[in-house]
Amino acid sequence: MTPIPPKKTAALKLAKQARGTLEKVISMIELDEYCPDVIQQADSVCGFMKSVKRELLAGHLDTCAQKKLMENKDQAIKELIKIYNLSN
Predict the structure, then answer these.
(1) Which of 35, 47, 55, 71 could disulfide-link 11, Cβ–Cβ 3.0 to 4.6 Å?
(2) pTM for this structure?
(3) What is the DSSP string of 14-78?
């Protein structure tokens, strides 16, 4: 098994933090806790996931995209545009 690249390792850590926070959100809803508190935790999950995307994109641009650009520039550009459109 190959080691996970540093950016993916960071993304994994953030995703696990998001999972933990999401589990807290679910628990808070089940316990009928105060809505603004639940919303704040839900926003935290969203923030973690934005950070996951940012880490993955940075890693992709640093490694995979660079390789793709040398192999097949047109396909690499289409892929980057797809990623950009999904992020907006």
Answers:
(1) 55
(2) 0.83
(3) HHHHHHHHHHHHHHHHHTT--HHHHHHHHHHHHHHHHHHHHHHHHHHHHTHHHHHHHH-HHHHHH
Tell me: the pLDDT tens digits for 4-30? 999 999 999 999 999 999 999 999 999
Looking at the predicted structure, is the pLDDT value of residue 45 above 90? yes
Q: Locate tokens 């603004």: which residue?
A: 36
User: Whole-angstrom Cα distance, residue 1 to residue 61?
Assistant: 23
> What CATH class is the domain 6-87?
mainly alpha
CA distance 25 to 69: 41
The domain spans of the chain are 6-87
Distances (CA, A) of 42 to 9, 38, 86: 23, 6, 21
Contacts of 24 (CB under 8 A, 6+ apart): 41
